[in-house]
Specification:
Elements (H helix, E strand, L loop, with lengths): L2 H6 L1 H16 L7 E6 L3 E6 L4 H17 L2
Antiparallel strand pairs: 1-2
Length: 70
């Protein structure tokens, strides 16, 4: 099914709307938005077009904190 057909169904529209509201609740302002981390250490938010090296550095920083308790 194409996007328009899926979105037109009530079930799919409700799911998309709930996902949208969740994203807004957590501060997602752009597509795509990634939250990297966890509740204990906190999250880093990456939005929009992000270079690979920034993803890599963010993930490595979160892993380092998880291992060495930043």
């Amino acid at each position: 099914e194409n996007f328009a057909t899926c979105y037109a169904s009530n079930e799919t529209a409700e799911e998309v709307d709930l996902d949208y509201l969740d994203g807004r609740k957590y501060g997602a302002n752009l597509v795509p938005t990634f939250f990297i981390g966890n509740e204990k250490l906190g999250y880093d938010k990456l939005e929009g077009e992000i270079p690979f090296v920034q993803f890599k550095n963010t993930i490595e920083s979160q892993l380092k904190c998880a291992i060495y308790s930043c």
